[in-house]
Amino acid sequence: MTPLRAVKGMNDVLPDEVGRWQRVERVFARTVSLHGFREVRTPYVEPTALFVRAIGETTDVVEKEMYSFEHHDDSLTLRPEATAGAVRAYVEHGVQAREPVTRWWYAGPMFRAERPQRGRYRQFYQVGAEIFGDEGPGCDAELIDMLAGFLGELAVPGVEVLVNSLGGAEARARYRDALVEYLTPRAASLSAESQRRLQGNPLRILDSKDERDRTAVREAPTLDAFLDAGDKEHFEKLRSHLDALGTPYSVDTRLVRGLDYYSRTLFEIKGAHEKLGAGSTLVGGGRYDSLVADLGGPKVPAIGFAAGLERLLIASELQATARATDAVVLPIGAAAMSSALLLARDLRREGIRCEADTRGGSLKSQLRRANALGARVVLILGESELAEGMVQVKDLDAHTEERMVRAQVPRIVLDRLSAASRTIDSEPP
Ligand code: AMP
Q1: Per-residue model confidence as pLDDT tens digits over 25-53
Q2: Could you say which of 3.30.2350.10, 3.90.79.10, 3.40.50.800, 3.40.50.10070 is the CATH number of the domain covering 327-422?
Q3: Is the CB of 114 under 6 A from ligand 1?
């Protein structure tokens, strides 16, 4: 029978790789909690209408990439991103009435029916955060600075922060008209996709990677000229805070990004260009001051970002530190099995990661497996040890071997491992 395979663009993460995933997730969780964010968990499935309203009907995500399905009389969609769900939850639970400023973070899978390639998948994981109730620009700068620090901790080479201001709805409408006016006489030279976008979503033409579109927009008006005084002041302040924090960034007046809900501050962080090439955007974020109200909530300003975990993992030079286990108990002979289970349990009660080799078998094969697991200590229980209430303790790193009194073993092993800071509680983030 032909074996079944995973769905195209949806990947397994096997235990050998999970160590690096967990390390990046721990660094993220620590970073955001140091900044006052609390974790929120929203469903993977939401009403289709939520994404259509939030992300925008004419965006690539909504037009082409959503996994939507009918269930009874509802149209539902696997979430392509998490901001829409977070805003829905914020409104639904009336959070604004309880707290003037809300800082939430999340991590989890997202689903987009894109053409899979390196760094682009159909199920992928994002970590992200949202701030509700603060119109910035102080928190905008803090968020960008936090992300620069996060990528630094992950040892991502070549980090580049790009910022822009999209202005408010009015500035964007004025700019949109000017862009359409500029591009309409040049429409024939645009790609077919952009010719279509000229009516629906002209700002997206600025995002196009197609050479014809890039040539056509080279001399096009830029957004900065259309910002009103309030937008300009917001952006200038953001820049001065970033300067004061010493966070390197550059202004990219053509940065627009794919989702419709953004206003004012917009940013993107790239890195590890050699490894990721054109897909080197690691983090995308921005302000969405009207989205909460657009989804039926109060008028509450907000800002957020999302980072792709797979891309962070390709970009990061951090290695997994975790070994599979610290200690392995080897029962030699059937009579030793219960004592091995007991000893392993006693070690775990000290916080030591420990396995008993419950297969039994020869000392040689059990030792081979303990080595493969990366254990530092093996504890051998043979016939004579059992009879004498002793354990043979082999330190695989220090290449030493001693017989010890059974009752003292958990403490002694703990002391050794702590000296090498290798228990589960002392692992680095
Ligand atoms: P977005 O939600 O489109 O603003 O994307 C934010 C970040 O999520 C990007 O910078 C990527 O790191 C990541 N990302 C977006 N789409 C994908 C995808 N299809 N596969 C992997 N990562 C993605």
Answers
A1: 999 999 999 999 999 999 999 999 999 99
A2: 3.40.50.800
A3: yes
pLDDT tens sequence across 252-264: 988 987 666 789 9
Output Rg (C-alpha) for the chain, integer angstroms.
28
Q: Are 339 and 296 in contact (CB under 8 A)?
A: no
Label residue 208 exposed, middle or buried (CB < 10 Å: 0-12, 13-18, 19+).
Answer: middle
CATH 3.30.200.20 fits 15-168+228-315, yes or no: no
pTM assigned to the model: 0.90
Separation between Cα atoms, residue 392 and residue 403, nearest integer Å:
4
Q: How far is the CA of 307 from the centre of ligand 1 (A)?
A: 7
With a 6 Å cutoff on the Cβ, whether 310 touches ligand 1 is yes
| Distance separating alpha carbons of residues 272 and 286, to the nearest angstrom | 22
Cα–Cα distance for residue pair 85/302, rounded to 1 Å: 14
Cβ proximity of 339 and 331 under 8 Å: yes
* From 110, 127, 147, 269, mutation site for ligand 1 pocket: most ligand atoms within 8 A of C-beta: 110
